[in-house]
Amino acid sequence: MADHFDVLIIGAGLSGIGAAWRLQQQRPGTTYAILESRADLGGTWDLFRYPGVRSDSDMFTLSYPFRPWRGERSLADGPAILDYIRDTARDGGILAHIHFGTRVLTAAFHDGRWSVTTSSGTLTCNFLYACTGYYDYEAGYQPAFPGADDFQGRIVHPQFWPADLDHAGKRVVVIGSGATAVTLVPALAATAAHVTMLQRSPTYIAARPDHDPVADTLRKRLPPALAHRVIRAKNVLITQGFYHLARRRPERVKSILRTFALHHLDDPAYLDEHFTPSYQPWDQRLCVVPQGDLFAAIKSGRAAMATAHIDRFVPTGIRLTDGRVLEADVVVSATGLSVLAIGGAELTVDGRKVNLGDTVAYRGTLLGGIPNFAFCVGYSNASWTLRADLSHRYVCRLLAYMARHGYTTATPGIPAGERRPLMELTSGYIQRALDNFPAQLDRAPWKVRQNYLIEAVTTPHANLRRDMHFSRTPPSA
């Protein structure tokens, strides 16, 4: 391995592979490496292996704009997405640039370059780009359940699904109400004796088809690249339109979601009890169920909902605060993620430790006061890749501008103003991590818009000099 690169990318998941592709395409000749802590690429889609794992974003917007999605299903399963990422890395010649089993521990900026200490040694680079997502790969969020040691069955977390777990013919309780829980329940119910989804409070559920007939027609009649662009644009317009309708007309969207749910589960009282949240749509991310599979499992009797609080675990299952006991052989704790910024790496700039919670995001990609550093974060109301790709292209533009003018460092200023959370969702996993993530302000370029339609137009033409400081400090030998 060389010891110095123009760019180091942290993470070989969906974002890291996309960043490498854009770097090769827009900055040919740039030396780079991808540092991946795990033994394989794919990130989320290699880590999560629980039954039914899939995307709740359509693949025409989650896939890369430069590589058309050719799969049959719009809502694809985890293995298909992982194959897509692997094929992209292989066909793009990116595999040779990935250094597996290389965890970034610290990164120190001094004299115009980063010195990156990893589990495999120390490297240096001119620009550091963190494409690590936002959660901890080593630990999921696990509450301390009273009496858990008394339970005679098995407790598992979806983030670390045991390969030897056989749930066939067994009673399963899935604790949680988010995307993982609503994915697991119908998948487990196919062979389990019975599955109960235990939630403290309801979540909005959107039933969607897993195939897109319009996309299928367009792919038959148009060249792949053109069909991909048209389908992508269609889906962006639909999802962004629905999001903004939800924010402006929440009662209307509640009615729409309820109508779709009643189509699959004709039981108004059941929906009132288990699928009617107290918050407004998109205060938290909507959960998607392809073909209404969760409702189908409930309607068949193979699964059921329980909206209640846990008193404690007992030897045969879980006792609720209302006195009921949910009998279980297996309990799946789908209780959420532990959020972790930039993979837990510690940053310092000229000897000063960087507390990410004190920083402010610049164009949602750079950080105020941190030179030659970018991070990748997706949208909370749309497919992750939409915003990730805008960030990749912005970084490439910035590197080209620096090279053209002979600059060695680019640093956003340190702005003043009212700080706001970077991701304005009320979800528990977001709220638990607010102090550990950068903030945003209420004005551009320090505001992170949750609007791809606007950013797709403005980001490629953004003023690279606005609120930025450039220098020509020669790096030390």
Automatic annotation (TrEMBL):
Q: Which organism is it from?
A: Winogradskya consettensis
The record's section on InterPro entries has:
FAD-binding_MO, FAD/NAD-bd_sf
Q: Does the keyword NADP apply?
A: yes
Please indicate if the UniProt record lists NADP as a keyword: yes
- Can you name this protein? Monooxygenase flavin-binding family protein
Which lineage is the organism of this entry classified under, starting from the top rank? Answer: Bacteria, Bacillati, Actinomycetota, Actinomycetes, Micromonosporales
Q: Which cofactor does it need?
A: FAD
Similarity annotation: Belongs to the FAD-binding monooxygenase family.
UniProt keyword terms in alphabetical order: FAD, Flavoprotein, Monooxygenase, NADP, Oxidoreductase
Q: Which GO terms describe its molecular function?
A: monooxygenase activity
